[in-house]
């Protein structure tokens, strides 16, 4: 309540200046020169979150906010949403362009792409694999129903979609035009949970644009993350059109390695508690760069890049003519792919090409992973030839492997948008607890010490406060688990991404209190801690700071994964791969459900 009332009170300054004469200001955002604090913290003894912020956005300008530290970039957006205190507050209000009757709390909105919102907003685990089979009632909402709801269309819940969802002629024309331009028209009657990650991102933008009451200023945080190369220019072109029309005005949040769209005229660079603003040309020349004085390089000697030839071991995954289809619609079409120990793969494909479905087959999550039987069938392109079909994981037919055994952390380690969204955010779950679940692939820690299953002690650096020394008593396997916990925390903890002072206490922080980037880094530790035979990393860098990304890439291309492990990485950016051609990197590309190795 304090946040909302303070934000409206500040905005009221602007409203009182309008004394019967309505005028439209050319200033969209106005922060003349101020420090920014958390609410209740603006005292002489408190360090501000940002110092000496001087930022003014005019009509006709197109802005991007750029930050290597996604947390600081998000904090600047939170300031615009009224969640932080500006001191002194702008005399004419933060948003002079809004008319007197408009409430900034509804006129300004953010869509962040660091994760997918879950149904119901609960903090426990939800079954992300439901998208491949039967879904819960709350997850049956179609894309059309969700978008219509943003337009205020609510009807008879017992009627069919066609009967109770109708728009005005004008709204319907706008709806179909925007849906077509975003490439979402073919998916309108699919449940939202069944959409690919890229399709979900576009749907969330469309929903924000269609919302009533209308959003006047839309903040899009990392909208390009997870989008394929073909989709990016189309989306940016549409965003440009929307911004030019002023319905809504748009400010982009970008990472430092993202390309600045050609239509962006001005850039605000965020970092080291400062905000530097200037023209696009100034940014491209590097004159807006902010040096982070507290960044300390990791430990390159710990992650020496191995240039020796990779050893290729036994086959871990053997797919032959694998198919996935729903009611006659083929999602995967006769996929043949072998993955061996020691191999590093880049899984490529446009949004909706079937990458997430293929990943679910590798994990054994998909119900149709059981149906890839060794029986023969008639090949679709021939009336006479007979082709074998099978899915073998770890030298066994998938249908013979119990799912709990397959999901054991020693076999498969996974970090994906689905895992990130599904993982519980309970208040009492510490970083140490989260990483420890990587040994059994579960979501609930076993035992007080986190590693569980008999480990009776921990080190001064990493264990719970009540146990200060590692003591003998566990099996060799249990001791190894403890050692691995300490190794990944040392290799991928705060020290590796430049926060030396946080290393000691990081393992005992509450997982839910971490930033999005920190949570992803912890879940990466979870995926790697058991040294699984197969590592699957899907959009793993989303939301991470630049220093985190480099620390993780350095670890992976060094000694973070061994020659007895295979790794598959899904990303649309070639530059995000930890390995290159010189490391023997191989590429498998999906195009409309058909896949082959790219040489």
Automatic annotation (TrEMBL):
GO terms for molecular function: ATP binding; ATP hydrolysis activity. It holds the Pfam family ABC_tran. Gene3D superfamilies: P-loop containing nucleotide triphosphate hydrolases. Keywords: ATP-binding, Nucleotide-binding, Transport. Residues 31-297, 317-598 form the ABC transporter domain. InterPro entries: AAA+_ATPase, ABC_transporter-like_ATP-bd, P-loop_NTPase. PANTHER family: OSMOPROTECTANT IMPORT ATP-BINDING PROTEIN OSMV. Belongs to the ABC transporter superfamily. This is ABC transporter domain-containing protein.
